[in-house]
């Protein structure tokens, strides 16, 4: 087997994606185990397909059934945080009902040594903390205090710092984790689409 690779497949393309997999790798058998659709092809290649929002697939072992099971929650949120900025959104189904993006300057690392490096590190940590606090302020305002599912991405340390804010205690973080560059509006828009996609991990024989 070659190394596994993950792709995000919108629900409306799941059946076509599977047909293309079969065309490349041969007859494929499907099973559902632990809420995930598994496909194994004649040439030994395989894939696993997971529903978004950590939902478990309880239907038939069939790509079309998996696609039908892609249900977007009536209320959910998205939080992207990196040292260069943040983006937060609240959604109703696939409709954006509130959002905010922002940028904060956090200095990069330095090669200086000694006390200069220590002062730089403290300043950089303070800048990062201020950036995370600002992101938490906006996240609390946009997401509100009612329970909802939250998809996150960016820098894990930064996201953890923001989600730890007590005002976000009602959110439940779910997959997928989204690897994104510094959040801007275009990045947020793409992340909204990616959060609703089926996660497929493929291993080629």
Automatic annotation (TrEMBL):
SUPFAM superfamilies: Translational machinery components. Residues 75-200 form the Actinobacteria/chloroflexi VLRF1 release factor domain. InterPro entries: eFR1_2_sf, VLRF1. This is Actinobacteria/chloroflexi VLRF1 release factor domain-containing protein. It comes from the Bacteria. Pfam families: acVLRF1.
């Amino acid at each position: 087997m070659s190394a596994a690779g993950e792709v995000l497949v919108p629900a409306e393309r799941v059946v076509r994606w599977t047909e293309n997999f079969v065309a490349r790798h041969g007859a494929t058998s499907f099973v559902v185990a632990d809420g995930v659709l598994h496909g194994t092809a004649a040439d030994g290649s395989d894939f696993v397909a997971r529903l978004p929002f950590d939902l478990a697939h309880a239907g038939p072992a069939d790509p079309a059934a998996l696609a039908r099971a892609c249900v977007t929650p009536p209320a959910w949120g998205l939080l992207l945080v990196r040292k260069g900025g943040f983006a937060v959104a609240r959604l109703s189904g696939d409709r954006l009902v509130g959002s905010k993006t922002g940028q904060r300057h956090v200095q990069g690392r330095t090669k200086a040594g000694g006390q200069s490096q220590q002062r730089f590190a403290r300043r950089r940590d303070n800048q990062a903390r201020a950036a995370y606090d600002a992101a938490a302020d906006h996240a609390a305002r946009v997401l509100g205090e009612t329970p909802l599912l939250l998809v996150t991405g960016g820098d894990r340390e930064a996201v953890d710092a923001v989600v730890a804010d007590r005002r976000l205690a009602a959110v439940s973080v779910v997959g997928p984790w989204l690897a994104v560059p510094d959040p801007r509006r275009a990045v947020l828009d793409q992340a909204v689409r990616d959060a609703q996609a089926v996660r497929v991990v493929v291993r080629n024989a």
